[in-house]
Amino acid sequence: MRDAVIVDAVRTPIGKRNGSLAGIHAADLSARVLTALVERTGVDPATVDDVVWGCVTQIGDQSSNIGRFAVLAAGWPEHVPGVTINRACGSSQQAVDSAAHAVMAGQYDLVVAGGVETMSRVPLGSHRTTGMPYGPGVLARYDGFEFNQGIGAELIAERWGFDRRQLDDFAAGSHAKAAAAIDDGVFDDHVVPVEVDGTKLTVDEGLRRGTSAKTLAGLKPSFKPDGVIHAGNASQISDGAAALLITTTDRARELGLTPIARYHAGAVSGADPITMLTGPIPATEKVLRRSGLSIEDIGVFEVNEAFAPVPLAWLAETGADSERLNPLGGAIAVGHPLGGSGAILMTRLLAQMRRRDLRYGLQTMCEGGGTANATIVELLR
After folding, report:
1. Is 366 part of the annotated catalytic residue set?
2. Residue 89 falls in the annotated catalytic set
3. pLDDT for 339 beyond 90
């Protein structure tokens, strides 16, 4: 079987809700990273077999196959297709997985994978304004429980015994690590500045420097009066996009390109849809089995910080080295633009692997409805 390699990975800065990126249509924001890939690699967009694009809230500005309109907004030839994938928060991670699988199977030779979400323009949950997505059969199976990610996070905290101080300490640490990463220029090579009204946004703007557990202690719980989850230890509502160029080793050589990493293994898994956010635990176990690697073989982990209990429960169950978990901070500090987050995590993962010469990296995302993706990539030295 052929291999799949990542040639380049880019992302926009992550904009805070109603911030600098709020005025940009999702297709145009997507076009920024598509254009950057072409500029950085010199690849002729006419040779791209497909653009596989993640997006969660496919309504309004993000409806009608945003992946296709991203291609057109970028000015690419009309014969280049685009498809939009929705696996909830893991949508663009699934886009990367699906693109790699198609390359390995010989269906594609050169493909772009990534995703977008403009949550300022297409609010969270706006696609559920009418109707019931679960259906009576699902509700009957779970005794009429109304699925809610925030309540799921509360249940995880209760099950693993995480108190408010532990969660707030983790959240404050996310901000501190993200601030250090920005100051050290870790993101500079893969973040594409976005110009808005004559001003360039170059860094993630949701970061709150100086955040501490003490300052977070004053925030009210969001989902239960006596709960431990609040706005400060949950991911931020954000805008952003990211894209990766994927091909084979042979095709990269023909094009004069030097790949960054090889797609090593991927896995998806389901979990209890009530707690909903524990899927990264079995997904990680599954991808490690499939890869033939152990948790100790992995040099860095990106576990999406949907809520602070998610990576903490993952850490407790996997036994991973806590120093290797989210060393650049995460979505609590810089944001979680749903459909773009999986590809954004991959750009972060690759940046760390290259900077620290780490052979293997693993990323995993919890997803609404109780599913999760896990992906392992191998640095090409």
Report:
1. yes
2. yes
3. yes
